[in-house]
Amino acid sequence: MNKSSLVRNGPFIIGVFFLLCLLVSSYVYSFYDSYDQPEKMLYDKSGNIAALAPFSPSLRFPLGSDLDGYSFVFKLIEGAKYTIGLSLIIAFCRMIFSFGLGYLLYRMPLSLRTLFSGLSNAFHYAPVTIFTFILIAPVVLTFSWSYDVTTKIICDQHPCFSSIHTK
């Protein structure tokens, strides 16, 4: 795929434009945010308390608010620069790491290269979700105190979790 075909690809342009707008709005919001106190109570026209935080989605709070009255929309915009920036850093590090390993593989003798080629083909056929599940299972069990009872029951019944479950 060459560069001119990416410029003509509509979904690619829309995605890049959306991420750039989100990134720019995150930095602009961080720069101009006055860090006002959140609204924990909403008042009606007569001055009576109409609602307490957390607020449900409305025109004033499009995605609702947290217990302190901070709008989830502004929380998402504020955190976008960290999420997008971290994903770009991780992608760049993966490219550098892959380039280094590829160069080392290129410099190896042919017999070792064929051995590593066979091992790498296993990653093409095994689903990534299996490797992800194996890596994430200990983390899920470590933070199991934050899950509800239904999730804990399902994890207790699953054979992968029950062998390493701590009570």
UniProtKB/TrEMBL annotation:
This is Uncharacterized protein. The chain crosses the membrane at residues 12-32, 82-105, 125-147. It is found in: Membrane. Keywords: Membrane, Transmembrane, Transmembrane helix. The keyword Nuclease does not apply. It is a multi-pass membrane protein. The keyword Ion transport does not apply. InterPro entries: MetI-like_sf (IPR035906). Its main location: membrane. One of its GO terms (cellular component) is membrane.
